[in-house]
């Protein structure tokens, strides 16, 4: 009797435990009855369980919990073609959440998030390709990036509803050129900058030659003026010296002659090794023979 009662109590406890389920914050629960989504009576809306403690029919109802929080799909970097048939490498991401849990559950093979992201990724890729394919690189890079994201968002809102997903935002994080295109652009820019630098250097050399020629001309003129002035001053000095010599000679001719003779002796005999043959009767030695300088 006691054993039977224990068995009954155990069965009741198991039944109660299996009939209770908890939905935590950030999740929503849907109930499956024989593999089909349980819907509200008289409507096509699924029975959706909010966070909290709930009850189900044991052995008949199965609860599937789905993440109701905002999700981020950080898409892989992909290559897109513009309207001018040029490639761009674009890195983007999408913010989304589940909008219709029953549709999401059925469209993603039982609420498989990986499958949902793969399906959403295809739609994002198609939408971005359509928008970027209708614009040039200049349009996308310079000012129409916001228009591209808004148009892509509108396209995703329509297509993602089939998955029970609501796309809240589409953002382009980075736009790059392919490596081969970047290298060619870099080489072209380098060639252009080199040409500009060469032109500047040529203009600089031309200006340097002009400045140098002007400086040389001014130096030549200044040297010529200096030489002319020096010759003028030297002539004036020579004239003044000649005048002073003439005045001194006129004041005392004998003394002047004596001084000139001494200067001549000094210059003649200052090189001790020189040999000079002069007649002693000549006028050159008259002050050596007679200090008074009187002619014999």
From TrEMBL:
Any GO molecular function: peptidase activity
Coiled coil: none
InterPro entries cross-referenced by the UniProt entry: Band_7, Band_7/SPFH_dom_sf, HflC
CDD domains linked to this entry: SPFH_HflC (cd03405)
Residue intervals of the Band domain: 18-189
A Gene Ontology biological process term: proteolysis
Record keywords: Hydrolase, Membrane, Protease, Transmembrane, Transmembrane helix
UniProt topology in membrane: Single-pass membrane protein
Name used for this protein in its record: Protein HflC
Natural source organism: Oceanisphaera pacifica
């Amino acid at each position: 009797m006691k054993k039977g009662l224990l068995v009954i109590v155990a069965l009741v406890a198991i039944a109660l435990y299996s009939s209770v389920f908890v939905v935590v914050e950030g999740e929503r629960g849907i109930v499956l009855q024989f593999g089909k989504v349980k819907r509200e009576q008289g409507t096509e809306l699924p029975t959706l369980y909010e966070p909290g403690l709930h009850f189900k029919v044991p052995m008949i109802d199965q609860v599937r919990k789905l993440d109701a929080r905002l999700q981020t799909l950080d898409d892989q970097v992909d290559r897109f073609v513009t309207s001018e048939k040029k490639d761009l490498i674009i890195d983007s991401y999408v913010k989304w959440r589940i909008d219709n849990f029953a549709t999401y559950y059925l469209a993603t093979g039982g609420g498989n998030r990986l499958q949902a992201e793969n399906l959403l990724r295809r739609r994002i890729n198609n939408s971005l390709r359509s928008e970027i394919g209708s614009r040039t690189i200049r349009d996308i890079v310079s000012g129409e990036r916001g228009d591209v994201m808004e148009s892509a968002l509108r396209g995703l809102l329509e297509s993602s509803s089939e998955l029970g997903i609501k796309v809240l935002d589409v953002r382009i994080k980075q736009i790059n050129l392919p490596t081969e295109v970047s290298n060619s652009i870099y080489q072209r820019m380098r060639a252009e900058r080199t040409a500009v630098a060469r032109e500047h250097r040529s203009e600089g050399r031309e200006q340097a030659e002009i400045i140098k020629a002007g400086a040389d001309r001014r130096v030549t003129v200044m040297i010529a003026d200096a030489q002319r002035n020096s010759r003028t001053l030297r002539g004036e000095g020579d004239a003044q010296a000649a005048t002073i010599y003439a005045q001194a000679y006129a004041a005392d001719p004998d003394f002047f002659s004596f001084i000139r003779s001494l200067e001549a002796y000094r210059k003649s005999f200052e090189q001790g090794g020189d040999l000079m043959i002069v007649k002693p009767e000549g006028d050159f030695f008259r002050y050596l023979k007679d200090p008074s300088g009187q002619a014999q």
